[in-house]
What does this fold into?
Amino acid sequence: MELLIGLGAVISVIGIAGIILSIVQVRRAKNNATNDEDLKAKIQSAMPLNLGSFLLSVLGLMCVVVGVILA
It folds into this structure.
């Protein structure tokens, strides 16, 4: 079960890194946008990374919780 907890923690950290990366992308887009359409397009391009990162974080935390319960 220690393997499951460790694997879940690594997956969660990767997800959190992706969330931070998407935040950085959106902040850069807000600073460099020339008009609303450009900003909207850049934010929409960051959405898949954001959602995928949240999914990884949730899956990693689920692995940690299952590992703790089974341990």
The chain has a mean pLDDT of 93.
